[in-house]
Amino acid sequence: MAHSPIPLSRPDITEMEIEAVNHVLSTPYLSLGPELGNFEQALQTYCQTPYAIATSSGTAALHLCLRSLNLKPGDEVITTPFSFIASSNVLLFEHLVPVFVDIDPSSLNLDPKRVEQAITPKTKAILVVHAFGNPANMSALMDLAKKYNLRVIEDACEAIGSKWNGQNVGTFGDLGTLAFYPNKQMTTGEGGAVLTAKKELAETISCMRNQGRKPTGHWLDMEELGYNYRLSEMNCALGKTQVVRLPEILHKRTAVATRYDQMLGDDPNICLPPRTHHPADMSWFVYVVRLAPHFRLEHRESVFQKMAEAHIACGRYFAPIHLQPYYRRRFGYQRGMFPITEAAGDLGLALPFFNHLSQSQAERVCENLKAAIKEL
Ligand SMILES: *Cc1c(COP(=O)(O)O)cnc(C)c1O
Question: How far is the C-alpha of 341 from the C-alpha of 363, rounded, in Å?
Fold first, then answer.
């Protein structure tokens, strides 16, 4: 019997989203209309934070965060090499120096001990990433920020709804970001948002999002060096509806993750995804297993290949940032510099993961995965 392909991810769009977007199209407001405020309000309420500023992407949100902090070229920002490339690229956009430190092997997030060791007089900020939705240790990182007077930016682009000690990630630092690409927990097609409790930063960021315009000023008065990082009304209407559905969406994702845990937990060749904190507070972005430590990159590649032959899409998450060709060329990074990150990158395999992944699809994924590993 030929099996139908199982995709890596798939958005969850209902009639409600379709109606919300259609409604916008029958109004004259396709950008900077009422849905922008509605969406931002929904995010503020959901994340329990005073300000949310919607942007055209998660990368744009991160970029505005870095721009708003008045850092100077050459200032150092400590961050993780185990992330999606955007969290580091935005530092380069602003001529800041990314200082990578290796990750904690159990959480795959920034290791506070290594962060402290990397602090120099030039360090001005810590850019935390909550990888795969699993919260980083915000207690320890915020303590360091206080002790050394550093700014904190949280890349929560993979972690909407994840909590650390009951508080939403993305709301601990000066600024946090969310992202809404179609593979994220919730989507606006393209889109992102900045979260903050600081009024002044919120005003600067919403001004820079809209070409440097102040909300009270004239349309052609540009008060700041700005960008067009706006999010259209159609995207905002879609997002507003997805926020309403977030509790249901995250519940479904937890159920899929639990199903995988049960089927894979007894295989000594497979390490389950990291989760450092209270399981109920984890917002699942992706489900990334790792092959046991005695395996190598070529084994993961072989498993990846066999899964592809069985029409099961898997992902290689993350390709470490310091090993990307641009970073190697510019900074001279090589293999061996961040061994924990490299091992996680070499042995990680993201399994198909989306709200409607069925029991039989999950079984097919797990059977093929176990069989592929057995053949190594
Ligand atoms: C998705 C993501 C982003 C932002 O991505 P966009 O495609 O620009 O929305 C940033 N950081 C991390 C860690 C991400 O996973």
Answer: 29
What pLDDT is recorded for position 165? Answer: 93
CB 91 within 8 A of CB 66: yes
188 CB within 6 A, ligand 1: no
> Quick check: CB of 58 below 6 Å from ligand 1?
yes
**Closest approach atom of ligand 1 to CA 60:** 8
Which pLDDT tens digit goes with each residue over 39-68? Answer: 999 999 999 999 999 999 999 999 999 999
Residue type at position 277: H
Q: Ligand 1 within 6 A of 83 CB? A: yes
**Pocket residue to mutate for ligand 1, from 84, 134, 154, 285, most atoms within 8 A of Cβ:** 84
Residue 165: exposure state from Cβ atoms within 10 A (0-12, 13-18, ≥19): exposed
Give the integer Cα–Cα distance in Å for 141 and 159. Answer: 17
**What does the radius of gyration of the chain's CA atoms come to, in whole angstroms?**
21
Question: Kindly report the CA angle at 312 between 307 and 316, in degrees rounded to 5?
Answer: 70
Closest to 86 in 3D by CA, of 172, 168, 190: 190
- Alpha carbon 241 to chain centroid, angstroms: 20
- Tell me: the pLDDT tens digits for 303-347? 999 999 999 999 999 999 999 999 999 999 999 999 999 999 999
